[in-house]
Amino acid sequence: MHTDELLTRGVAEIISGPGFRERLEGGRALRLKQGFDPTKPDMHIGHAVGLRKLRAFQELGHQVVLIIGDWTAQIGDPSGRDQSRSRLSAEAVQANAASYLEQFFMVVDRARTEVRWQSEWYGSFGLEQALGLAGRFTMAQMLAHETFRRRHEAGLPVTILELMYPVLQGYDSVVVQADIEFGGTDQKFNNLAGRELMGQLGMIPQDILLVPLIPGIDGRKMSKSFGNTVDIRHEPFEMFSRVMAMPDEALPLLFETLTDLPIAEVAELREALAAGQGEPFTRKKQLGRLITAQFHSPAASASAEEAWVGRFSRQEIPDELPEHQLSAPVGIIELLVASGLAASRGEARRQIDGGGVRIDGAKVEGYDRVLSPGEGVVVQVGRRRFVRVG
Amino acid sequence: MHTDELLTRGVAEIISGPGFRERLEGGRALRLKQGFDPTKPDMHIGHAVGLRKLRAFQELGHQVVLIIGDWTAQIGDPSGRDQSRSRLSAEAVQANAASYLEQFFMVVDRARTEVRWQSEWYGSFGLEQALGLAGRFTMAQMLAHETFRRRHEAGLPVTILELMYPVLQGYDSVVVQADIEFGGTDQKFNNLAGRELMGQLGMIPQDILLVPLIPGIDGRKMSKSFGNTVDIRHEPFEMFSRVMAMPDEALPLLFETLTDLPIAEVAELREALAAGQGEPFTRKKQLGRLITAQFHSPAASASAEEAWVGRFSRQEIPDELPEHQLSAPVGIIELLVASGLAASRGEARRQIDGGGVRIDGAKVEGYDRVLSPGEGVVVQVGRRRFVRVG
User: Fold this and answer.
1) Is residue A193 less than 8 Å (CB to CB) from chain B?
2) Residues A221-275 pLDDT 10s
3) Residues of chain B positioned with their CB less than 8 A from the CB of A81
4) Looking at the partner chain, which of B122, B128, B159 has a beta carbon nearest the beta carbon of A137?
5) How far apart are CA A176 and CA A33, in angstroms?
6) Which of A229, A199, A79, A208 is nearest to A147 (CA)?
7) What is the maximum alpha-carbon separation in chain A?
8) Cα–Cα dist A269/A284, whole Å
9) CA distances from A107 to A69, A295, B322 (A)
10) With bands split at pLDDT 50, 70 and 90, how would you rate the model's confidence at B319?
């Protein structure tokens, strides 16, 4: 991959100091830091966005340093000081880490990865060292963190412990001598703490590469806590099905971050979709195939697609359907709008173009189909929206 | 001492929970916590205010627990994060502590004192324990501390380390199972942190007894950094002289906190002084004798007073004196006012009554002395104010 594309494709923001480009192309293997919280071993395709970027850097000869936050995890969740904190046993942390590593190396090259556990340095950390770090950051710096500021201003508790989290994550960068830290845009503050600390200690501050967060199948940020993820260990059919349920407007971002589709094609798709074209249904199947093949195999991916299309065609119609009564014959476009299956005539046409509209399971081609009162058919848009037309 | 007087004389504030009085008089030896910062081994009479209170509690059978902050001291001053922190060597801390203890036991009963070093618990403190404490206090609680709030609001840095100081001092109370913590009013926030922490851990929260801060010889708060202290290791003459230089209006507070003068007499003195009476000069000599005798001996105190009065009488007149020209004979009262040596006729009379007015070194008795033009004498009020009368 050309360096320009490496630094722009699937990248939300780069925070870099003087000489960044020279370091990148100077022939030395840069140390690419990536952190992992072993309370959450299940990786979804949102995580894979960053891992794919790490892999692209590895292919230029750089070195990944994966930090397993085993130590932070054993401290437990700091929020809610009156609640007992959920602590993970050392065994659970080990098990989660093993599971995570297995997933991590589905994308990242194991041969160019150094795995480090926080306990190497925090296990023997004394209070004096902890306070030494605490002396390097001010309350005001911490209140620059939106999460802290918002909670503080709302009168919600922010404990000193929580203030120490970015500090400790930052110190990880010092220990492993990170050149570039990778993270999602939600990690910016923590990553900046590492950059700040390295500068204070006379090191070249790490550069930061932030990847975008992607939406989940319900359009909100993809997150385990919303239950809207596509997990990289989902079985092929489940994975394919979940990709098919992603919002249309996410397609360009998903192609950009999770496939090797040439970036020019991604740009074309973005434009086409914005203009109400671009065959989102067809494209989404393509995306589902590419993603499923990536975490399973091309064969498994093809089977998943076939099964999905088959199941879709088998017309698994829910028992209880909304009814739409006709008093006169009506065209399919008009019906889709009148029944609420499409928001506009434009959308109705796009749905038909994309192959997403069926009458009694048969795909509707073109806009000419007319429905009559008493015909008693089921009209379907996508997988989940149905109306019984009377 | 009667309990009512014990809890009011020389006491600025008591913060106590239910059952305080019962605990105090219940027959169990209470544990009275007092902290010491071994970066500052020189003790002044402002510190003695609290030590005298500890002694009074000891005489009812209670137990002093002195915490030597050897560990905090080795961390150094947290303020000014870009400055290198001044660190004390372990040897310096030992020497300071030895010196402090010697002074401490000039007032406090050694037989009823337990000396504890912070390093007993902080020396082996891990990061996990430190973060455990950090999780028990919020930023908002810390910003209730006036020092932190004022600096934060002024945009001055407050480091996380500094936030940890009250927390660690508070944890000292947990370790030694303090019943009452003693401190100056400036220690209230730190002491409250201990109270809070004990409550969180299910212990009976320590009560807090705060003693007033006293002024130094320049009227500002007595503090080593202002150079205005009366140190308990000052030689008798120096000690007596410095007491004589204290502001008149501090006399009632100093008698209350640093002597056993019956509290009724202190109250009378306060009223008399407020009414422009009360013989401050005489009273100050009495105070000087009592304080000097306390830290040296009655004999040494008497010698100091004699030497001070002698030196005062030896007329050590500065070379450069302000001049006051007479054009006609004038009474001493009128002269004192006209030359600015007294603010009013009333003050002039009080100065004469107090033995503070001399002409050419001879004490002026009564108000009848008349001075004439050309007489060429030096008129003196107190030790330091002189006028040459021509």
Assistant:
1) no
2) 998 888 899 999 999 999 999 999 899 999 999 999 999 999 999 999 999 999 9
3) 135-136, 138
4) B159
5) 8
6) A79
7) 83
8) 11
9) 20, 8, 91
10) low
